[in-house]
Amino acid sequence: MVESRPLRGRSEQLGLALSAVRRVRAIGASGVVLVTGAPGIGKTAVLTEICRQAAVQRFRVARTKCDEIEQVSPGAPVIAVLRSGRDPLISADDYEHLGQIEPLVLADRIATYLEKAAAGGPLVIAIDDLHWADRVSLFLLRSLIPRLIGLPVLWVLTSRDRRLKSELESVDHVRFHHLLLTPLTAPDLAAMAHDRLGGVPSRHTQQLLAASDGNPFLAVQIIDGIARTAGREDAVPAEFTAAIHRRLSELDPTVRWAVELLAVAGRTLPIDDLVLLQPELTPELVGDAILSGLVAETSGTLSFRHDLIRETVSATIAGRTVRGLHLRIADHLLRVAGQELLAASHVKAATIPGDLGSALILTSAAEQLTSISPDDASELAMLAFGTLRPSHDRWFEIGQRCLAVLARTQHVAETLTVADQLLARADEAEVIGQVETVTARALWLGGQVAELTERCDRVLRLPGLAPAIAARLTAARALAQTRMIPGAQAADGARMALATAQAAGDQEAITLALQACGEAAKNEGRHRASLGYFRDLRPLLGTSYLAEEIIALQLLDRYEHAQTLLDQARKDSESAVEGALPALAYAQVWQDFNLGRLDDAGAGALGLIELGRQLGTSVHALEAMMIHAAVQLARGEYEAADRQVEAAARLTDADENIREPAVPLMRGWLAATRGDLDRATAILRPLLDTAAESRTFWPWWPGWTAVFYEIGTAAGEPKFARQAVDLAELGAERNPGVISFEGLALNLRGRAEDDLALVARSAEVLASSPRPALLAVGAASYGRALLAAGDRDAGMVQLDRAWDVYHAMGSLDSRNGVEATMRRAGARRTKWDQSTARPATGWEALTDAEQRVAKLIAAGHTNKSAASTLGISINTVGTHLRAVFAKLGIQSRVQLANTLNAHPGETREPDG
């Protein structure tokens, strides 16, 4: 629910905010209060009062603020919340262990800490000045607020920027209040002056207050100035800026320098640090700075009384002086404090062309940020690279380091820009090869495989290339070719690249070649070989390719083993698996989809799509959108599926080879469900013609061959149908002993040849498949074959079995097709009448998956422990929980527990 309106009276503004506090306290619902307005309008004062009154009502209050200069420290303001206040939410040891963590893992850990804290009582998380928040902090907020829905957590946020409003108000089941602070009226200003001056303000004072434009802070400055000068109104400048200038001019030069340094620092500074930076600064002079009214002292640190003062002081400092102060602070942060990232933020503000020291600091900071905040790392790397001229003797060295950062952060355009500048000034084949090797990984991750192949070919033609470099480029080219040429040809090239890499003894080349072999084997449908190659990568790269292992296990029907790896990955939050989290989420979605958990698959896909939006990446989001569209199709939601597929088609600028064949496959399936069989076969025929030599594993996924066959049969296209049979049999040949492949091959051959015994055998085999959908395909096709053979009773047994499986999965489209066959044969079933569409609201509206989540959360589980218990992802739990709240019309986990207790016949799951 959203409440957003400009409120002129501060009492009215506070009243609305405090009602949110009371609501959180009363029912345990989540809430967000966003306070926006111009600088000095009173945002911090409102936040402070909300925190004060929340503390009175026994909330634990955690408060922090964003800092203009600390934007280079990813997530710092949100992380600081955990240790703020008199009663920190976590221990110092836990806080220390957060360190520099990849954002996804950091979000998960912070959410776990906050869930635990909220279980003990209501929380207020207050973050001031979000207009200065860094990218990671904003990502964390977007992740944490929906993750904590239904818990007694009130977020109080302030910002000059109102653009946050659209993001925050769209979070489901979080009551959102937007307080737009507007200027004070003339009577408000007069009342303030009366209270401070002890009498009705004179006409001149009212004119000065009018110059404040209703800004409370500026008005207080004017009133305080009048009070300090004992009513000599002519001593108060008409403009706030002039007042600040005047105070600065009255300061001792050493004190003024300290104030200016504090302004450039952009944050609070310990007095001891100021003294180190300016030894002439005595305690008496520090006292003079405080007496000026510009700065305040708190626990041995100095800070400005308000950001407006700091900004005004900053504006008075000459550009050359500002640069000198930034560099002096950076030097201090490096030598004394050892804070390289903060030093980089000052260097960033002061760097000039040709400054080697600045370039080195920026490069080092970019390297630190590579896995934590890729966008920030890329920005610093480009700035560092541009700092030095090509004539500088260390330009190439710095350039190579910046290139490595850009490649690792997948900023393909910037990678190519830097690489081409380096290559334009490189003559030695080995150096050129080193640059192109780094560039190759960025091009692969960015899906630009044609460019990757072309660049590798160009360098491999150079004479004098070192064997290790040649092996790397050969392997990179082989990897690109897995998306460009027929599968068998790509596999041959990958194996040759691996032999070359092993002969050269170069680990990076071996890694690239093993990856190429794994991809090529998967594209050929040789899944045991693919699994072997990806497992060979484990000693070289740790768990970076764990998701590929899991998918290979799924394709081999080894779902229990796949689940074991998924469960271990969720527990192992300290390992290198962190960087593979989006890929693992993708593997989990496939796990759920294949095992017939369509609700979990749909929820997980939505979570992965949202994750891609937050991270700004599209590779796994594209696949997730395809899976979500498949779930929608299974449910009969054709229009929604169509919108999802078309959105996916627009999602990425990767090469067409990367986007295919997922999007065309789904378009063809959609066309068939709408009865446009000519269009369906036209879309799918090119894919089926080349499926045996595919550039991706999608056509080999068990189940697609059945879709192809049924479309070809319905369209009266016998050649099309025969190709589907041939593809199914080739899959079985390449994966002997895998039930899903063998059962489908038998099934389609039996149907194509009208061989009842073969169809019966396929149903028997598929009954052992771990994939419910394939079991149902076997039973349904056998049941129809029995009906055609005149054995109605036996046919109904099989069709009933298929109906039950489809119904349990929630695959309504297939279920309804089976039901229609049975009705035409004269069957009637009570269960059909009882399987009407779920109501839109109430307990009966919840799917089985949503009920499982609801019971665990009502029993006191956190999102993380519920995910672990159910063997699904945390994102999936969150998606289910939002659906539960919507269908039950509740807003808190307390209300969920009460609803569940009141529901007859339902018991809560035990803790554990």
What is the terminal separation in angstroms?
Answer: 33 Å
Average pLDDT value?
A: 85
Q: Which strand order spans the largest sheet, edge to edge or round the barrel? A: 1-6-2-5-4-3
The low-confidence parts are 1-8, 232-238, 573-579, 907-912
Detailed description of the structure:
- This protein is mostly helical and 912 residues long.
- 66% of the residues lie in helices and 5% in strands.
- The protein has a six-stranded parallel beta sheet with strand order 1-6-2-5-4-3. Strands 7-9-8 form a three-stranded antiparallel beta sheet.
- A hairpin with a 2-residue loop joins strand 8 and strand 9 (301-304).
- It starts with a strand and ends in a 10-residue tail after the last helix.
- The model is unreliable at 1-8, 232-238, 573-579 and 907-912 (pLDDT under 50).
List keywords for this structure.
ATP-binding; 5% strand; 6-stranded parallel sheet; AAA+_ATPase; 912 residues; nucleotide-binding; Regulatory LuxR family protein; disordered N terminus; 9 strands; Sig_transdc_resp-reg_C-effctor; mainly alpha
